Amino acid sequence: MVDKPIRIIIAPDSFKGSLSALQVAQAIEQGVRQVLPQAETVLVPLADGGEGTVQSLIDATGGHFVDVLATGPLGEPVPAFFGLLGDGTTAVIEMAAASGLPLIPPHQRNPLLTTTRGTGELIRAALDHIQPPAGGAARIIIGLGGSATVDGGAGMAQALGAHLLDSEGHEIGPGGQELLRLAHIDVTDLDPRLAHTDVLAACDVDNPLTGPRGAACVYGPQKGATPEMVAILDEALAHFAAVIAADLGVDVCDVPGAGAAGGLGAGLLAFLQARLSPGAQIVMDAVGLRQHLAGADLLITGEGQLDDQSVFGKTPVSAARVAQEAGVPVLAIVGGTGQDYAAVYAHGIDAVISIPVRPMSLGEAMRTAPALLTETAARAMRLLRLGQGLRRDS
Questions:
Q1: Spans in the chain with pLDDT lower than 70
Q2: Single residue among 279, 312, 340 that ends a domain in this structure
Q3: Contact 102, 150 (CB under 8 A)
Q4: Predicted TM-score (pTM) above 0.90
């Protein structure tokens, strides 16, 4: 009787600034096959909802990018994109693609003026492309992070057909400070397709919309806000929440995560009835990690740096918890380990191995990451074979 080949799920995050999650998985797979050529390997690129999420989900599902010319944070047109996943029923958007901080030179950053209109345009474009499954709803995944905005998602809502009106019935302008002029919200013309679309917001923070831990106070300075601007924006968001409650019947002010991406979390809740969930969890569900782990012998995950903060929603630990539920052991291959990284051992990761094999600079490690990953994976498989008594030709 021939022994069944070992089944290994390779599900890493990207190595930021160096390799995409798929490239990491491919390099690890090469190392596995050097030692265990008959192993069954399944590549499942992951992400945490931030930068690289669209790429990972496209790679994992056989999807493709869709290019869109959208309104940038300061109102200028910018080239942006979203991903259409392989089944055609799901689109994935990184809000930073159209409304992100890197789109504005540092000397022009002013969250009193910046808008999320471009993110709304991406959502509208996605609605034009996705096909709802028979008897079900289409789905849009939106990654919240890297925003240049503190407008509570007002620009997004306007791009999707909502009317945000002042006391004279005129549309308010772009930017967070304009929310102070808001008197009434009219959603009569909101895109009707949204009512048949399941919107998931990848959100890894629990900040409320306003107050000391709110969008303006915590994240405004990162987007260029002075203390005076922070006070204006916090007041504006509180006023926005009050009008939303009065006109839409939705309480967004104190919802954990409402303050994400300059309050875009609140806007998604109010206008799109979105669900806010940890980014890594949304991605793992979208690529079917639980299903892939059924009958697996090992999960290999990883990211650029593993430390004591990795237990708070980072991809490797999130994946390890799913594997732990399935009874699958977990190996993490990482670019480096930081302070108190051993904390991950209490959260489902069974072993950690770093890729540098000798003292080297970060730049050299990033340049040679594919070869280092392959070599490290091969080394790990030799240790696994030794420890488990696996046959050399398994």
A1: 1-3, 388-394
A2: 279
A3: no
A4: no
